[in-house]
Each structure stands twice: as C-alpha cells, then as structure tokens.
Design goal:
10% of the residues lie in helices and 11% in strands. The chain is largely without helices or strands. It has a domain of 44 residues. The protein starts with 5 loop residues before the first strand and ends with a strand.
C-alpha cells in the first residue's frame, strides 16, 4: 500500500503553502510522540507525575529531556516552575519529602510514599525532632542523616530505603561511635539525647549533689514511630522514677525541686522553660553553662 506524505512550509504567519510530495514506497514512518497519560497533574491519579518519577527512582533527567534543563518548558512549552516555585524548582527537597507548600519543612510527614501518619516508619518522630516540641532545641537534618548538597550526590538517590541514619555531633556527645539505629526494631540506642550520659563527681564543682561516683542517665531505647508522649517523660532519659526524675547518682529530688538548681531550664512545676538549654550537651546549673 503506497503512503502519501505532505510537506508543510511556513512562509509567513499569514501564508501557508501545502504541496504534495512524490509518492514513494520506502519512506520510514516518523516516530510517534509519547505524551503523558491523563491525570499526570492529578495527585489522586495513578498517572500522577510524582508517582511516575518515583518509579524512575526520582531521576529528573527524564523530565529535562522535554521540559528543558532548568524545567522552564523547553520544547513542550509547559513549565514545571509554574507549580515548583522554589529556587531549585523540582529539585527542591520538599518536592519528594516534607510539605510541598512550605519550602522550610523538608522532613516528613509526607514521606517518599506519601504517608503522613507517625506510625509509618518513613514519618515517625520527624516533627518532634525538627520542631523540638518544647523538650529540646529543633534539630537539623544532619543530626541523623547525611544531607546532600545536590540531588544527584552519591548516596542520595540509591536503590534502597529507608534513608541511612548517620548520627551527628549531639547524638554522639561523649559516646561517639557506640550510637546505633536498628532499622528492624526502629530503635535508637546509646544516644546522648535519650539518656546515655555520664557526669563524674571528680569533675564536678558540686560533689555534694552526688550519691555515687558519677551521675548517669537511663540510656533508653526509644522506638522511632512511637510518638504518644512516652519518651517525653523526664525519668525515661534521666531518673529513677517519675517521682524522682533526677539522674541516677544524684541526690533524691522531686520534680518540684529541679528548678532550685536548674532554674534557667525548668520551673518549680517541672515544666521546661528554655528548651535550648535542655539536651544541649552542656550542664546548666545555677545560671552557669558548663561544657561537657
């Protein structure tokens, strides 16, 4: 069967000349133009482009082939920057994880699978750590992860989930490489933040407050996706009981007496009044801040 092709020449915006080419049998048909399926911009659709990009292991180079290197539209004329308004466009951190509407909130909720409940291990206690929640100062991402400088930095877009937990300086304060995260049990172990600390009497300016050679914490093992307040109780990290939340080796104290010595951290009702001075790697006593 012979095929008929037309050559279209645009001379001016107002003049279009159409002519018939010579009929041939050996012309190779042009490649079909691949278009996105319906629903490409609908987050509820199975064809949503976010799901497509996930299936491609978040490789945005595929997008750049048609939408231009800077995602401004390219040959398609459809700019990604109409929705991705952050300075890095689609390569911004909160495109894949975090709050898409808030460039400052780059951690889950909304993990790489779109989950938002803390029971999901990709979400867990991110908010509690990132915002501080009145217990400690807000933590940066690099306290638990290696933060890439660019999207394609080695170790960022790899084959496996979950993201690697690589503890930072505060987590390893005084304990260094013994800190562990169990990816199966979702447990942190031996972290300074959760009670792995030791203050020797021999190095203290207040030896009368000691009942043993050193004060130590409970060194608890918090489960990442339990966020019901369990790990906000004072004695979970430092203390013998809820009635006496002071560290082991400390003279007996009640929650109402903590503020006598640590008045710039906690009040007489046991409420933390300055979270930047709690879980900060230092000893705060009588208004002094002692480096550890």
């Amino acid at each position: 069967m012979k095929k008929l092709y037309y050559l279209i020449l645009l001379l001016t915006p107002a003049m279009l000349i159409i002519s018939c080419s010579e009929i041939q049998d050996n012309i190779t048909p042009p490649l079909g133009l691949s278009l996105h399926n319906e629903g490409i911009n609908d987050p509820k659709s199975e064809n949503f482009h976010g799901k497509l990009i996930k299936s491609l292991k978040w490789d945005l180079k595929n997008c750049q082939q048609c939408h231009a290197r800077d995602y401004s539209g390219g040959t398609t004329g459809s700019s990604c920057l109409n929705c991705h308004k952050q300075s890095k466009g689609p390569e911004a951190c909160n495109t894949c994880h975090g709050d898409f509407a808030d460039p400052a909130m780059v951690s889950p909720p909304r993990d790489l699978s779109g989950r938002i409940t803390p029971e999901s291990k990709g979400v867990g206690a991110h908010i509690e750590h990132m915002l501080g929640e009145g217990v400690g100062k807000p933590l940066s991402c690099n306290e638990c992860h290696k933060v890439p400088l660019t999207l394609y930095e080695e170790g960022h877009l790899d084959e496996s989930l979950p993201a690697e937990v690589i503890f930072g300086e505060l987590s390893r304060k005084n304990v260094r490489d013994s800190v562990i995260y169990d990816y199966v049990k979702l447990e942190c172990s031996n972290t300074y933040c959760h009670g792995n600390f030791s203050f020797p009497r021999s190095e203290s300016s207040y030896p009368s407050m000691y009942t043993e050679d050193r004060m130590i914490g409970n060194n608890s093992k918090p489960v990442w996706n339990i966020v019901d307040g369990t790990y906000k109780k004072c004695n979970v990290c430092h203390g013998k009981s809820e009635a006496d939340p002071s560290p082991i080796g400390h003279v007996a104290s009640s929650i109402s007496t903590c503020g006598v010595c640590h008045s710039d951290v906690v009040d007489r009702k046991g409420k933390i009044i300055n979270s930047t001075k709690h879980i900060n790697g230092k000893i705060n006593v009588f208004g002094l801040e002692i480096e550890r």
